[in-house]
Specification:
With 221 residues, this protein is mainly alpha-helical. 33% of the residues lie in helices and 4% in strands. Bound molecules: zinc ion.
């Protein structure tokens, strides 16, 4: 059996892309699954009002005391099915909202029905990992860019850093009403790039200035 055919059998539904292996197929697949579910009715992307309390109270929290999954940072991709109000419970993936079957697969190859002990697809674990820690995938991203800095075009140095083409603060400010799961595209490979550290520092300084300016504008009467 050819390698491609074998790997597709191991991991059904994943797209076959010659480079990158897992990170190439995981997020694409996860978004496709999420597209089957769509956003829950009435859901919008919100952030928590404040950072989670660092001082944990002793003892178990009751259900009412537990804070919702809402994130305080726009850097974390929106995941409606992780919010307690929209959670589908065991047997459904908390990222894409589709049923989870044996071994975390998204298809029921064994005809055993949904796996009531699972709330993640294997593919969605991979996708979430890339979305929330893209720097861990720098090696593959560098290769996709043929080791050239996406901003300056120069050679990428060892210290090069992963960055988003459309910065995530801008996603929150300007694109937050984009339909979910299309919104997740801003965390995926097409919005990721590797740039040299000096270029990144300059860009971050510019971004900070632009954020200060827009905060100043909204504070104006
Ligand atoms: Zn999933």
């Amino acid at each position: 059996m050819r390698w491609g055919a074998a790997s597709r059998r191991r991991c059904p539904g994943l797209q076959s892309i010659p480079i990158g292996g897992r990170i190439q197929c995981g997020p694409i697949d996860s978004r496709a699954l999420a597209a089957k579910s769509g956003a829950p009715a009435g859901w919008t992307w919100r952030l928590a009002d404040e950072k989670p309390d660092r001082v944990r109270r002793r003892g178990r929290k009751t259900k009412e005391e537990k804070s919702d999954w809402l994130m305080w940072s726009f850097r974390v991709p929106p995941a409606p099915y992780r919010e307690s109000h929209y959670a589908l419970g065991p047997g459904f993936c908390c990222i894409c909202g589709q049923p989870v079957y044996r071994f975390g697969w998204q298809v029921d190859l064994w005809g055993r029905g949904a796996n009531r002990n699972a709330v993640w697809h294997a593919a969605c674990v991979v996708a979430w990992d890339l979305w929330t820690a893209p720097s861990d995938h720098a090696r593959v991203l560098k290769r996709l860019q043929q080791r050239r800095c996406a901003q300056s075009g120069g050679r990428l140095w060892k210290t090069a850093e992963v960055d988003h083409w459309v910065p995530l603060f801008r996603v929150w400010l300007e694109h937050r009403h984009t339909q979910w799961p299309s919104l997740l595209g801003f965390w995926g490979v097409p919005n990721l790039r590797v740039i040299n550290r000096d270029v990144h520092l300059t860009k971050c300084a510019e971004e900070a200035r632009s954020r200060r300016d827009s905060a100043g504008r909204t504070a104006d009467p």
